[in-house]
Amino acid sequence: MTRRDPDLAIRHMVDHAREALAMVEGRSRQDLGDDRKLELALVRLLEIIGEAANRVPVETQESYPEVP
Prior knowledge:
Layout: H1 6-24, H2 29-34, H3 36-54, H4 58-62
Helix pairs in contact: 1-3
């Protein structure tokens, strides 16, 4: 697998999205405001998801029109 492998990019997106969801499970919006480490961790996970999304080729994106 190379860095440009769309399957790998999608796998990274899914893995990090799941990690973010697990991190906020059972927490409130107020918890996010009160916990700077949680906020920074979530921001970083979202950055990783965005970076991986940029590696997914347009052709692959067009195969999944239901995914924004």
